[in-house]
Each structure stands twice: as C-alpha cells, then as structure tokens.
Amino acid sequence: MDEQLTIGELAHRTGVATSALRYWEDLGLLPAPARVSGQRRYPPSAVDLVGVVLLLRGVGFTLREVKAFVAARSPDGDGWRQLYERKLTELDQRIAQAQVARTAIAHGLACPHENIFECANFTSGVTALLAGHSVEEAHSQIHPGTSGARNAEQ
Question: Cβ distance 125 to 142 under 8 Å?
C-alpha cells in the first residue's frame, strides 16, 4: 500500500496550513481523503495537487477558477485551455488598467502645483470621472495624444 500522509504531513510538505487544506477540501479542490481512526489520510499525489492549487493561485486564479481547472482536467480534455485563455484576457485588461493608472499618477507627480486640488488638469479629470468617463478617457481628454499603455514621461 502506498504511503499515506496525515494532514500535518501534507501541510509540512507543501507549506500550506492545515486549516487551508481543510478549506480546500470543503471547496472540492482536494478530494475527500480516506480516514484512519478519524484522521485524514492523503495519497502522496495530494502533494502535487496542492502544488497545482498554489501555482494557479500564484498566477491570479481564484479558488473557484482553480476548482474549475481541477474539474476540467482529463486525459483527453483541453477545458483548461479555455480557463487559461479567459484568465489571460482578464490579466491583459488588468495590466492595461494598471498602465493607465500609472501614467495618470506619474503625470500627477509631475504637476507643478503645490496643491493638486488647484491643478486645472486634476479638477478636469475629476469632473470627467463624475460625468461617467473612465480614468483612461478622462486622462486622454486632459493629455491628448497619450495613452495608459505609453510611457508616463510623455
């Protein structure tokens, strides 16, 4: 019979708290382990599965998405590719938003006004946001010819 791991041993091998492992089990990320005298006993393959969860969490997947990924794995399936494609699109959108924010903040730091609230560009941006424009639209109205994806030094 293969070596079975207690939850403490699994936690030690993976660096994941036992409480998190129990939570992941409740969510269905980890299969319900066998029980020996009431104690959880995991197969050695659980170490790799915990590693998969850690990797996916580390690159931005939610626990719900991790569950879908784990459920989608099959020898002949490629459902995981769809999950990856959606996450890549989401990350691209978040990166674009972060670039817009970075550009706007860099322009704010370059503002010659001692009090940012006295800056016409800043107040125009606030007005544009209140009128329903996105940060990117508001910023492009204030600084025509720049975009969030360009270098903030423009």
Answer: yes
pLDDT per residue as tens digits for the range 119-142: 888 898 899 999 999 888 888 888
Q: How far is the CA of 99 from the CAs of 61, 64, 96, 139, in angstroms?
A: 21, 27, 5, 12
| Topology of the domain comprising 7-72 | Multidrug-efflux Transporter Regulator; Chain: A; Domain 2 (1.10.1660)
Measure the CA–CA gap between 102 and 113, rounded to whole angstroms. 19
**Quick check: 86 and 80 in contact, CB under 8 A?**
no
Whole-model pTM: value is 0.70
Provide the H-helix boundaries in the chain: 7-14, 18-27, 45-58, 63-72, 79-109, 120-130, 135-142
